[in-house]
Design goal:
By secondary structure, the chain is an all-alpha fold. The chain has one domain. Helices cover 64% and strands 0% of the residues. Helix 2 packs parallel to helix 4 and helix 4 crosses helix 5. The radius of gyration is 15 Å and the shape is globular.
Length: 83
């Protein structure tokens, strides 16, 4: 099999769905209204069932206002039920 070109090695662009936009809006509202970031992240996970990890992390960063590292930590802890 031929080696992949540099372009083929690049990751695919992520598609931002309507559900993702809704989850960003909802999680921003929750945080503004005083909910914890953990609660907002749990809500995001419930809204985005069937979405990729990359898409969920994007919503954690944009909606819950987490850093990339924080988003990865929250994702791991919530998916493995540590929170």
């Amino acid at each position: 099999m031929a080696e992949k070109t540099k372009l083929e090695k690049q990751t695919k662009q992520m598609v931002v769905t309507k559900k993702m936009q809704d989850a960003i809006s909802e999680s921003k509202k929750l945080v503004i209204d005083g909910a914890s970031k953990v609660d907002a992240a749990k809500e995001v996970l419930s809204i985005l069932k069937g979405h990729t990890k990359k898409q969920i992390l994007h919503v954690f960063v944009e909606g819950v206002s987490l850093t990339r590292a924080g988003a990865h930590t929250y994702y791991y802890n919530l998916v493995t039920k540590k929170s």
